[in-house]
From TrEMBL:
InterPro entries: Thiosulph/SO4-bd. This is Sulfate ABC transporter substrate-binding protein. The keyword Transport applies. It holds the Pfam family SBP_bac_11. Its main location: periplasm. CDD domains: PBP2_CysP. The keyword Signal applies.
Amino acid sequence: MTKTAFFGMTVATGVLALTACSNDKPAEQSPQASQGSTTELLNVSYDVSRDFYKEYNELFTKHYATAEPAVKLSIKQSHGGSSKQALSIKNGLQADIATMNQGSDIELLADAKLVDANWRSAFANNAIPFTSTIVFLVRQGNPKGIKDWQDLTKSGTQIVIANPKTTGNGRYTFLAAYGYGLHTFSQDEQKTKEFAKALIGNVKVFENGGRAATTTFAQRNIGDVLITFENEANVIKGKFGNIDIVYPSYTINAENPVAVVKSVTDNKGTTKVATDYLAHLYSDEAQELAAKFYLRPSNPEILAKYSKQFPAMQTFFPTEVFGDWASIMKTYFSDGGVYDSLATQAQQP
């Protein structure tokens, strides 16, 4: 999607990746999980998590099989922009599990009474099993000399990002830049807005998801820099090898909240299996798997094991700087909000 068409856009249908697995164990056997039956779970997740969950499903299936060998487990995945996925669940997609990259997406489901209101206390670490952060991907050798956020405002620099109006990846990108501005300009809102407007003005492509942005930058070879999650950046570098990762001086922590969609699981009889699926994300083996995919584990001991892989960074959580997610969405991403205002100004000659 070009920069001239990112307002009021209709999000393209998210990519649906189906991964069939078999056999796993809930904390307590669910009504659906009777001998000889197949228990099906649908994990509706955000765009760039597909690779992690593909392997996690296999890991969880083996865990489940040790206690319930007679019960077959089939886990399906659906991936797309985080907010689009949450809206799909609200509109009737029969997800057992929601694994998003933005707290407001789970809150949307809680407000609709599809997820328990106390979802953050259902699992450890406020239901955040791992985090990521926002970094830059540049062409090999960093020909544009990009070292920090302000370098992205230089004339002639072409940026690729996911759309902040519709995706968690894009919102984290915008909030990371805006938070950097507030930090750098001593909370001066006007200077921060001028900085953010200049950065937005250099965006060549606003994509409909993080993985789509990856394709545009890495495969279509468009743009000088891709702003994306740290885990996605490392996956891209490992796959293509002709790009470099730049860690900015100050950036955002991206939470990855999870919840059981009880309105669905209570009806299907899969609540116990779905709960165990999410609880197992905190197991040592799942935390190790998260590190393999460059997601920062919530277990501090496992995170410390990978200190070379995860450089120490000065970071902030969005709720620490901008208020709760409801306030963030209203102030920055609602129609006519801060982002819309700056993007409109950036389009003017």
